[in-house]
């Protein structure tokens, strides 16, 4: 599968179209700064990444902390059996952590072996206790106790048997599972977390904790689970070092609120030591990142593409730029738990008709990618097999509700006696989303809604608007991969509509028919069946007007000429998938 087929077009648009794009007032003159040819200059022992959102939890496996910022910053600190590696974002085993092998299809059986030398940075071995904690959380075996993003197939496995201190375990599935490789412990939101820390903070010995996990004793585990769900949150300072041991090449060693996070080489790591001793992640607003790179304040950036960013990169010197497609798409989600859209399909349809999707793409994306189009399906990227089948399936609904029609939107509001309905549209505070919000407000106000547009820096935080459900419509992006299980939990009925109970389903949509389709696609016997089911799911999501896709994100990464081994990743592996290989000469 070709992943970056549009990269050359994007690059041509960026460079060839720079003269007609609006200038950025903070741009340098490009010639007087002698450091421009050595962006990110300074100590060769440190590489600095600019990132706009803060780290807010050491545990990205919980529903409230499942953010791209947490995953990106923590990629080098907590390991697993696999990751999304390389330029195409494909699943690749991480054999330094351990090995796995599918040994049977009937029943589906996968054997795992943790590296004999694998240990947390505090010296505690990575073993059976960690596995049992991981399985208990990821399977949802004790309903509502441990927060998780989604069970992602582990609910269909038997609890693995392993001896205390053991390094091997086996997952046996009740049913086939198409994405079995990414169901096991890996990166992102299904990392193995340190059981000995959870036990200690829950007032239990390791032996007591393991016994309670095996017995699924919710009462005994209550305090430990509370720590697991909330004890790794970062509020103003890092937790004590004893609480955040590492199982990767880096450990988390520094934090300045609103400023930076510092990762330092984990000298206790059993594998190869990282190429650079220190990684600093500086919190820099996206519109300021190109200038920070040019000034040598940071070495690597990956801002969201905007016209200003395109202009600045076209004029920059002494940097490398990579442009290509991403498994990331922008969308609006409705709140089904509260507010005017929760019970009214008609009002959701009216919003779809006033939402200026084409105008957003034309004004904000096409100046960078001239052939960018409005996105009409969510679960598949344009280069994925089955994409055209999904587009064809939703065509009747798109013909009716997929194009902006202010007059018809107003007609629906009048029929529903809902002219003047106040709606709160929330998003993250950055330039492109603020520009998008202004377009939404203008268009939907004209149709008869009263739009309150709110953008905030803490939108993705565990206490922010998305997690807490304070929105009527939320605008944000999902970054995924080519794995179906990655987006499956996004539309599945939540256990409860709370920050910890809703998983990826931030709008708390619930539909038993769709749940069954989501179950079916995970056990589809072949790709053709899976593609047909994906098309059915897309049609159902449009018919119920659950969420409205807007566009596929183009990706921009830039780094200083002195930095080596920066390899952009289009999946949720993010730019830091190979942070241990970064170096600077």
Describe this structure as you would to a colleague.
With 585 residues, this protein is of the alpha+beta class. It is built from 18 helices and 17 strands. Strand 4 and strand 5 (108-114) form a beta hairpin. The longest helix has 17 residues, at 431-447. The model is unreliable at 1-42 (pLDDT under 50). It comes from Streptomyces carpaticus. Residues 101-482 form the Solute-binding protein family domain.
Spell out the key features of this protein:
SBP_5, 585 residues, 17 strands, six-stranded mixed β-sheet, single chain
Q: Roughly what percent helix? A: 25-40%
Given as residue ranges, the uncertain stretches (5+ residues, pLDDT < 50) are 1-42
Structural class: alpha+beta
Question: What is the count of helical runs?
Answer: 18
What is the straight-line distance between the termini?
Answer: 34 Å
Query: Mean pLDDT, rounded to whole units?
Result: 88
Organism: Streptomyces carpaticus
Keywords: Signal
Domain Solute-binding protein family: 101-482
Signal peptide: 1-23
């Amino acid at each position: 599968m070709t992943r970056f087929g549009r990269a050359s077009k994007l690059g041509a648009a960026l460079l060839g179209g720079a003269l007609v794009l609006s200038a950025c007032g903070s741009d340098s003159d490009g010639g007087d700064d002698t450091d421009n040819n050595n962006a990110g200059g300074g100590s060769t022992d440190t590489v600095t990444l600019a990132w706009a959102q803060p780290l807010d939890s050491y545990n990205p496996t919980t529903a409230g902390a499942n953010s791209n910022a947490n995953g990106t910053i923590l990629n080098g600190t907590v390991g697993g059996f696999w990751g999304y590696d390389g330029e195409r974002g494909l699943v690749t085993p991480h054999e330094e952590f351990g090995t796995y092998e599918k040994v049977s299809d009937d029943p589906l059986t996968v054997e795992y072996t943790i590296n004999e030398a694998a240990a947390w940075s505090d010296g505690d071995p990575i073993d059976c206790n960690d596995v049992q904690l991981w399985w208990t959380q990821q399977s949802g075996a004790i309903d509502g106790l441990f927060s998780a993003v989604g069970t992602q197939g582990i609910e269909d496995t038997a609890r693995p048997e392993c001896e205390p201190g053991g390094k091997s375990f086996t997952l046996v599935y009740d049913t086939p599972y198409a994405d079995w490789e990414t169901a096991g412990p890996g990166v992102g939101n299904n990392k193995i977390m340190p059981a000995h820390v959870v036990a200690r903070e829950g007032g239990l010995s390791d032996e007591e904790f393991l016994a309670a996990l095996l017995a699924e004793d919710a009462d005994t585990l209550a305090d430990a689970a509370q720590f697991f769900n909330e004890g790794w949150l970062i509020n103003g300072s890092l937790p004590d070092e004893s609480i955040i041991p590492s199982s990767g090449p880096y450990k988390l060693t520094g934090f300045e609120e609103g400023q930076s996070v510092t990762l330092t080489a984990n000298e206790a790591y059993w594998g190869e030591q990282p190429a650079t001793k220190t990684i600093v992640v500086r919190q820099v607003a996206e519109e300021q990142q190109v200038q920070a790179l040019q000034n040598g304040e940071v070495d690597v950036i990956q801002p969201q593409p905007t016209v200003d960013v395109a202009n600045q990169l076209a004029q920059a010197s002494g940097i490398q730029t990579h442009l290509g497609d991403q498994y990331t798409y922008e969308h609006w989600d409705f709140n089904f738990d509260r507010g005017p859209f929760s019970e009214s399909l008609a009002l959701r349809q009216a919003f779809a008709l006033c939402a200026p999707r084409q105008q957003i793409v034309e004004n904000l994306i096409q100046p960078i990618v001239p052939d960018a189009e409005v996105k009409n399906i969510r679960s598949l990227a344009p280069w994925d097999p089955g994409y055209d089948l999904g587009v064809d399936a939703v065509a009747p609904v798109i013909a009716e509700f997929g194009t902006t029609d202010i007059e018809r939107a107003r007609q629906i509001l009048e029929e529903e006696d809902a002219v003047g309905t106040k709606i709160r549209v929330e998003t993250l505070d950055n330039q492109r989303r603020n520009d998008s919000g202004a377009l939404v407000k203008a268009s939907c106000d004209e149709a008869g809604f009263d739009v309150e547009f709110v953008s905030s820096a803490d939108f993705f935080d565990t206490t922010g608007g998305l997690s807490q459900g304070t929105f009527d419509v939320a605008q944000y992006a999902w970054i995924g991969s080519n794995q179906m299980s990655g987006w499956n939990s996004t539309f599945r009925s939540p256990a409860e509509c709370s920050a910890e109970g809703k998983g990826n389903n931030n709008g708390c949509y619930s539909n038993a028919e769709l749940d069954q389709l989501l179950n079916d696609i995970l056990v589809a016997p072949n790709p053709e069946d899976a593609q047909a089911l994906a098309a059915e799911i897309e049609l159902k999501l449009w018919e119920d007007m659950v969420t409205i896709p807007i566009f596929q994100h183009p990706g921009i990464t830039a780094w200083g000429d002195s930095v080596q081994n920066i390899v952009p990743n289009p999946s949720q592996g993010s730019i830091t998938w190979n942070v241990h290989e970064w170096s600077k000469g």
